[in-house]
Amino acid sequence: MMNKSGNVSAPAQAFRRELGLFDSTMMVVGSMIGSGIFIVSADIARTVGCAGLLLAVWLITGILTVAASLSYGELAGLMPEAGGQYVYLREAYNPFIAFLYGWTLFLVIQTGTIAAVAMAFAKFTAVLLPMLGEKNILFSAAGYSVSAAQVTAIASIIMLTAINARGIHGGKLVQNVFSSAKVVALLALIILGIAIGTGTGVFSANLEGFWDASWTRVDGGKIASIEALSGITLAAAVGVAMVGSLFSSDAWFDITFAAGEVKDPRRTIPRSLALGTVLVIFLYLLANMAYLALLPVKGNPGAADLAGAGIQFAADDRVGTAAASVMFGGAGAAIMAVLIMVSTFGCNNGLVLAGARVYYAMARDRLFFRPASRLNPKGVPAIALYVQAAWSSALCLTGTYGDLLDYVIFAVLIFYALAIGGIFMLRKKNPGAERPVRAPWYPFLQLVYIAAAAFICASLLIYKPKYTWPGLVIVMIGVPVYFLWRRRAE
Fold first, then answer.
1. pTM
2. Which of 89, 221, 338, 408 is most exposed, with minimal Cβ within 10 Å?
3. Looking at residue 460, what is its pLDDT?
4. Neighbouring residues of 122: CB distance < 8 A, sequence distance ≥ 6
């Protein structure tokens, strides 16, 4: 059946509002903290070359993330329904813009992140169980092979999908347990790391060149060049360095996707966005303080010891593991592996739970596979969950998820800016609509965010063009797909 607006009529089943403030906040925290905080500081350190700017990159990222989350609070209060950012873009602009976001989310952003996080879970599981590693090839034919790590990653996706298909209660329980556990564990390691590092003299050494900015480029595992930074090149380097920190701070808005299952969503979602993002950014800054207390910023890729490699050239960019090794010696790798396993498993639960709600909303608008618009007897979009799991698993097998995520950061920033710009549009379109929460410091904060996002995008276009144009191509492929869906819906 169709309603007057042309959308699919309400399903027989309905979402169940079981997510309170704590659950929603843990959803924000759990979806944000994955494996990135333990890895990306290495690339940031190579790009900016000093402790001051390493911290500045994370601080600026935090300010932008919190600014965006506070702004999204108004949108969440105005439109407390399943689909989150997809719905905001549809109502502020039109279904076409919303579809391009939903298309990119399904094709790469959400599913690619799920695949990447699942593979991180598998790789660190292999630290404890080597038989599950990438070197254990289970199948090989015609130049294509499948490793035990890929099978482990897919198994974790299927497990989380099955849990969430059984109802929001199970997904909520997993999220709360794993999110709480990793916050406590991460905080304990931070405190211990800062305490141990204080007496080593490493942080004092990092303070000596606190603002000595440089961009270290690597080719073939060796340092190719070191460029001193100042002026516009310094600002551009900071913008480029933020790619990793932004991805590590991403997915904070996933709770908006599940708005249909939140109690008193008009107030609960804005509060959880603010609380969750502030907590995570605080932990991220402290984690980098711990790294700086234990490891020198600068290093050499050929160094045989942790101090010689520094943050810049930690083995496989695993800065967290290097820091844990300083604290715990040989047991450090295993301790960090357990923490990252807990972190990535909990992170992926939030991503799996939330993403399916967007495809549900798209299907309700007849812009996705029609069966995805159905809720099962447990009140969850099970078919959307299964479709998401299938594509995420396929990305695990292709091994291209990492490249795809690099490609779409440009597009992600554009969609963020558009969503925040939607506040201006909706205040003009619906000035009298109920807004339990209003975006703070309007319009200054929103304009600053949009300007910052534009600057980062411009920096990426200039300094990392191979990571920008492919992302735009992925988005633009959605243009003909949109018109095909519309024709099919007629």
1. 0.89
2. 221
3. 80
4. 132, 148, 149, 150, 152, 153, 156
Q: What is the pLDDT of residues 35-53, one digit of tens each?
A: 889 999 999 999 999 999 9
CA angle 341, 347, 349 (to 5 degrees): 105
Bin 264: left if φ > 0, else alpha if -120 < ψ < 50, else beta. left
The residue assigned the tokens 């813009």 is: 97
Alpha-carbon separation of residue 148 from 20, 130, 136, 307, 396 (angstroms): 38, 9, 6, 33, 11
Which residues in 208-224 are b (16+ Cβ under 10 Å) and which e?
ebeebbbbbeeeeeebe
From the centroid of its chain, how far is CA 25?
Answer: 15
Q: In angstroms, what CA-CA distances link 142 with 10, 139, 145, 146, 398?
A: 48, 10, 8, 12, 14
Strand partners, 215: 227
Residues of the chain with pLDDT under 70: 1-12, 400-406
What angle do helix axes 110-128 and 148-165 make, rounded to 10 degrees? 120
What ranges make up the beta strands (E) of 220-341?
222-228
Q: Is the bond into 443 cis (omega within 30 degrees of 0)?
A: yes
- CA atoms of 295 and 301, how far apart (whole Å): 14
What does the pLDDT look like over 66-109, one tens digit per residue?
999 999 999 998 998 888 899 999 999 999 999 999 999 999 88
If one counts every other C-beta atom within 10 angstroms of the C-beta of residue 328, the result is 16
Report the alpha-carbon distance of residue 119 to residue 121 in Å, rounded: 5
Cα→Cα distances 398→119, 125, 146, 190, 404, Å: 12, 20, 9, 36, 11
The closest alpha carbon to 464, from 402, 410, 384, 421, belongs to: 410
CA–CA separation, 455 and 274 (whole Å): 24
The three-state secondary structure class of 216 is strand
Give the span between the Cα atoms of 215 and 218, in whole angstroms: 10
Amino acid letter, residue 32: M
Q: Give the per-residue pLDDT at 167.
A: 95
Report the first-to-last Cα separation within the chain, whole angstroms: 14
DSSP 19-70: B-HHHHHHHHHHHH-SSGGGTTHHHHHHHH-SHHHHHHHHHHHHHHHHHHHH
Q: Are 233 and 225 in contact (CB under 8 A)?
A: no
Give the per-residue pLDDT at 144. 84
Can you give the residue ranges of every domain in the chain? Answer: 21-95+175-361+411-489
* Short-list 186, 462, 77, CA closest to 87: 77
Superfamily of domain 21-95+175-361+411-489: Amino acid/polyamine transporter I (1.20.1740.10)
Give me the pLDDT at residue 5, please: 44
In the block, residue with structure tokens 């659950």:
23
Three-class SS state of 146: strand
Q: Which residue bears the tokens 């300083």?
A: 326
